[in-house]
Amino acid sequence: MDQVLADAAERIFRDQCTKTTLDAAEDGEFPERLWQLLCENGFQLMAMPDSGAELADLFAVLRVAGRFAVPLPLAEALLANRWLGEEFGGGETNALNTVGLMAENGSSRWLGVPWGRAARRIVGVADDGGVFAGTPVAVNEAVNLAGEPRDQVEVQDVRPLPYAEPAPALLALARVAQSAGALERVLELGIGYAQEREQFGRPIARFQAVQHLLAMVAAEVAAAGRASDAAVAAIGSERFTLEVAAAKSRVGESVGLVAEAVHQVHGAMGFTYEHQLHHFTRRLWAWRDECGSEAHWQALLGRRLCALGADQVWDFLATSS
To answer: Is 186 in contact with 262 (CB distance < 8 Å)?
Structure first.
């Protein structure tokens, strides 16, 4: 993994992803300045096969993006460019492309399209993992729980793309990486608030009950990060989809526990719109269900393990990716 890319992305996100930017994006304003800065630094090209970067670098950047609640369809844009290949920009390498889900295989109605209203081209992923390109002609705007655009788009000129990568697993891993980063930030916010907030003459971080909550949160955040790392390490291997299934399930479990505990630490303050905590917890709750819920991936994992047979399950579990 090239840490230079993640560090460069962090500098941009730290400077640009202010609460004002996040609030404006939630009101429907596309963060054009942030997108152009990323393009000026070549991030829109980083998932292209000839970019010199590895797919692991993409997920490292997405983890940083989750830590700053980046209000862009960054994962979808970079994966769309990869799957579209040389035509991805239609002559404009800064054009925004994104990814949605086909309502049904072969349908021209694509659902849950992040920032579909601002996209030049859209890549649709079918239930069977097929990848298709289309041009948007009509958009019904919608948002997810976090206020992120998840539009319903009618497309034309639909055609299959040649990539044979496991698109559903890559999209799920994108949410895993983003969630791992957001969980890290939520832990930081919880610790910071507990150290600042005083009750009965001392910081609430001194109270054993609060320490217990934050210790549990730290353990869950570490587990989620390790699950994300394991799935990224399995890219290109036969067990990649199963590692993603395990990671998406484990991270989803952490999301529920961490968000609840850190909101408890913050008390009423954490539920106000003025506080930044909700920008992360609402994304975590939304991402938990996007690209396949825990139940979806747990069922897939169970079916695959059962298909191995009793004699091979332990060998599979004990073998690292």
So the answer is: yes
CATH of domain 167-318: 1.20.140.10
User: pLDDT tens digits for 45-56?
Assistant: 999 988 888 999
DSSP 17: -
The per-residue DSSP string of 71-130 comes to -S-HHHHHHHHHHHGGGTTTT-TT--EEEEEESSTT-SEEEEEETGGG-SEEEEE-TTS-
- Asked if the model's pLDDT at residue 92 lies above 80, the reply is no
Q: Residue 100, Cβ neighbours under 10 Å: how many?
A: 27
Task: Tell me where in the chain the CATH 1.20.140.10 domain(s) lie.
Answer: 167-318
Residues contacting 158, CB < 8 A, separation 6+: 106, 108, 124, 132, 133, 134
Tens of pLDDT, residue by residue over 251-262, are: 999 999 999 999
End-to-end CA separation in angstroms for the chain? 16
Instruction: Determine the residue type at 31.
Output: P
Measure the CA angle with vertex 185, ends 269 and 201; round to 5°: 45
